[in-house]
Every structure is written in C-alpha cells, then in structure tokens.
User: Which sequence fits this backbone?
C-alpha cells in the first residue's frame, strides 16, 4: 500500500461539489410546470462565485463536520442568495437587466415567473435544510433558525434591503450605512460561516471566533463591492457599474472616500484573520478567502 | 370545589388565540425599517378567516397536542398563506386591488415593499417553526419539511400558481384543473391538517385518516371558491367577483357546470367526514368546519 497524501480541495473543487448538489436538488428543466424550473436554473447557474457555500464548507470543515453535509447546507445558502438577487433585480426594486454578465431572470422569463422563482428558491432552501442527512434534528433546527433570522426582519437581509430602498431626504449617516451593510449582505455571510460551524456542533468559544470572522468578512465584502462599483467597468463586474451613485445608494466610498474605504476593508480583513489565531494553520483556508475578497479593490 | 365543565373553544375563540400570537410574532409597526412591518401587519390583519390555523388546531387537538403549540404552528401557516396572497395580488400576477374588502398590499405600500413583505412573512414562518417550544426537534423538522414541500415546486403551491398563470391555447383539461387546485390551494390546506397532526406525534393510521380529510377538504374548498366567484357579488366576496371568467382561469364551474360542481363539493365533504369515522365524536369539530366550507355555495 502506498502512502496517501491529503490534498486540500481547491476553491474550484468546492464550486464543482456545490454545483453538483444544486443540479441534484433543483427540479429538472423539463419537470412540469417547466417555466419556473427553467427560471430557477437560469439564475442559479448564471456563474456565481459560490462564496457563501465555500465559507460554510471551510468553516464547518475547520471544526470537523463532514463535507457532504456542508455542501448541502451550502447549496441551500446559494438558493437563498440567488432568490435575493432575483427579487432585488426586479423592475420595482433595483430594475437591473444584467447580472453576472447575463440577462436577469425577469428579463428572460417575465416578472411573474421571476417573483415565483425567487419564492420557490427560498422555499426549497428550507426544504433542503429540513431534509439534511448526517446530523441530528436539533442541529438542523439550529441551522434553520440561524438562517431564517439572518435573512428576515427586523435585523436580517430583507430589513437591509428595505432600508436601502428608502428615499433619502438627507445624506445617509454612518449609523444607517452600517445597518444596511450589516443586514443586507453581512447577515447572510455571517450566517454562512455560522451555519457551517453549527453543522459541527461547536463549543461556544469556537462558534464565537467564527462569528467574529464572519461579521468582519461580511462587512469587508460589502465595502469591496461598493469600491468595485466605483472603480470597475461593467465588463469586469458583469453588471451595470456606477449604478450605486446614479441611484444615490448609501456606500462606503461616498461617505468615507476611496482610500479610507480601502483602509477600513483591509483592517476588517486583518481583524477577521486575527480571530482565527487559536486555530493556527487550520484557519488558513478561511484566511485566504478573506484576503481574496479585497484583492480586486487594491 | 365546584365541578368544572369543559367548554370547547368556539371558532371565534380560536381566531382570537391565533391573532394574539400573530400580533406577538410580527415586528411592531414602529420597529425600523417601519414600512415593511406596517405592510406585513396590513395584510396579516386584513380580516382573514384563519381557516388554516383552525384546521391545524382542531386536527392536532383531536390527537392531544397542546393548543399553545398548535396556535403557534397556525400562526406560521397564516403567514405563509398571507405571503402567497400578497405576491398573487401583484400587478405582474393577478393584479388585484382589493382583498378581503381592503386595498391590497402593493396598492398601499408600493410594489417593492409588497414583494419584500411577502418574502419576510415566508421567512418569518420558517423562523417561528424553528423556534417552537414544547415539541422535540425531530417533530419541528417534520413540520418544516411538510410545509416546505407543500408550498414549493414541483408539486406544491408555487407550482399550482405557475400552472394557473400559463397562457391557454386550448380549454383546460380535467387533469390540469385538478393539478392546479390540488397544488395551489389544496396543498397548504392538507399541510395545515397534517402539521397539526404531526405536532401530536401521530401513529400512521391517524395521520393517514387526517391526510385524507385534508385532501378532500382542500379540493372542496377550492371548488366552493370557484362557485362563489361565479355566484357571489364583489361585496360578499371582498374581492373582485367574476374575475376568474374574465381572466379565463381554469375553474370547476366552467368545466363541469354549477350543479355538478356543487355535487362534487358535497361529495368530497362527505368523504372527508367519513375518513374521521374512527375518531367518533372527537372528529366533530373538523366535520363542522368541512360543512361550513361549502355552506355558502348551496
């Protein structure tokens, strides 16, 4: 027998794993009523980075949870993320025709099907979580609770979207900006890290370290996204650049300037990595992801 | 000490109980961001009959589940039902301005907030189910699984909505009509009965009896709804009457005629009640609800 070398799966390996799960979990395009299943698949397979599943897998993997279980939770996270994008892009909300370089769901399938495809992805995510194999029911319940509160109101993703939609009579305050970012994007990223950890039945200290990491990374990611909207071109972004400014959305660069926003993002990433110190080298995958997030904005 | 008489709560008592839970569970109107919480409350407290919570409470009560637990599951059911109405009423879908005699959510709060209020109610329903007290985690997981599959695709509520939206080149077949009714309305009614039963940790026979009851009642309810659309006035309905015909929606009266539709509904109710025979008098509350459902169409 030859010695085996443990090779860490690359980010591409993880994406392939999650995509395979998504393909298995979503009804096929030829299942009646076909239009909604085609719409769900259109948006799910439009080239996402699978950041949330990857955060979940690396966080849970660090604490020893099985990768099959984590990939399944990750697939549910990606469904939730995609549902939020489909609804966000609707004419009544951000009215975006382009996402990840492809026409958005309502442009291809019409508004009615896009609304229902978002609803169906959110619903399927909870179904998938309730059907997880390989973890006891109390852990499933914890994960469902974690996600449902991260993406609802009054403090989750939907609350952030509403706050971001509100007409502004005056410049946004740092307080409101942080609420929007923390709730709208940060909440699901934090929950991605935490749901992976919860799948491993963590002790309180480990969960709290990973929670800190998830919070800091979530905020850094949103600042990086704001920066890319100012710095990038539509071709790089795969969506309409400069849109935040035209819609006078609240962003870090508009409030703090570009350089200071970069500094804040770098500092958040340093703090996120520092929270992983007690994990020593086992924290490296998560540290690399954190650094990757802000690399494009340097 | 005087003898106590066990008085069965009336339907109005049950409605009050569920409404109190809903008021407790929904964020208050003055919680930031206010607009969405006002929108969620507008639609939840627009005068619904609370049929789904009542079915859940009576079904679970029959098998001995505690009423506090059942009312909480019922509140989640009502959130899901209300989310589906808000999205169904949107301009891109049924484009309805009036519901239960009041202006619909998007008419009052705009389309963006209406879409997000629906999303938030669906999300809150799953959160509430994941936070239920008084039942072990495996039962919570069963209830969540039951509901998530009843309201998604390919066989649940959203699939029924999509099938009902599809443009018709030819008259709808009995097969498609039954799919639409079973999936769109029947699925959640069946799941309301079953989730109450699941809260009581039922044996297979009892669950199967109540499932039969829920299926028959679900279909009878939709036929009665179709009949009321033909027979009723807008004032009685609290929504626009005759709309199905103008939108050439698939209905029982259009396929079978009014008298035959009445006969089918009555027969379904008889079969629903017969499925409860083994419960003897304990089945009376559910029998009465079944009869009430078709009374208005006689």
Assistant:
């Amino acid at each position: 027998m030859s010695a085996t070398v443990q090779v860490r799966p690359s980010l591409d390996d993880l994406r392939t794993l999650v995509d395979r799960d998504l393909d298995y979990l979503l009804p096929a395009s030829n299942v009646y009523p076909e239009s909604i299943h085609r719409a769900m698949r259109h948006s799910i397979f439009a080239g996402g980075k699978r950041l949330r599943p990857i955060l979940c897998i690396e966080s849970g993997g660090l604490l020893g949870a099985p990768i099959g279980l984590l990939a399944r939770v990750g697939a549910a996270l990606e469904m939730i993320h995609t549902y939020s994008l489909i609804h966000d892009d609707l004419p009544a909300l951000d009215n975006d025709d382009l996402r990840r370089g492809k026409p958005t769901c309502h442009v291809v399938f019409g508004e009615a099907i896009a609304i229902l495809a978002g609803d169906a992805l959110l619903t399927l995510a909870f179904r998938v979580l309730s059907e997880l194999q390989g973890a006891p029911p109390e852990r499933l319940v914890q994960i469902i609770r974690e996600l449902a509160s991260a993406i609802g109101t009054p403090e989750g993703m939907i609350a952030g979207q509403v706050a971001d939609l509100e007409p502004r009579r005056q410049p946004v305050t740092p307080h409101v900006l942080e609420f929007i970012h923390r709730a709208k994007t940060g909440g699901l990223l934090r929950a991605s890290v935490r749901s992976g950890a919860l799948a491993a039945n963590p002790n309180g200290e480990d969960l709290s370290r990973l929670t800190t990491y998830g919070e800091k990374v979530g905020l850094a990611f949103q600042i990086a996204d704001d920066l890319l909207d100012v710095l990038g071109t539509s071709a790089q972004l795969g969506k309409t650049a400069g849109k935040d400014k035209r819609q006078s959305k609240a962003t870090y660069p508009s409030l703090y300037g570009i350089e200071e926003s970069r500094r804040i993002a770098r500092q958040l990433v340093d703090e996120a990595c520092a929270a992983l110190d007690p994990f020593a080298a086992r924290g490296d995958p998560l540290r690399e992801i954190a650094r990757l997030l802000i690399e494009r904005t340097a």
Summary: The longest strand of chain B covers residues 98-99. Residues 204-231 of chain B form the longest helix (28 residues). Strands of chain B lie at 98-99, 102-103.
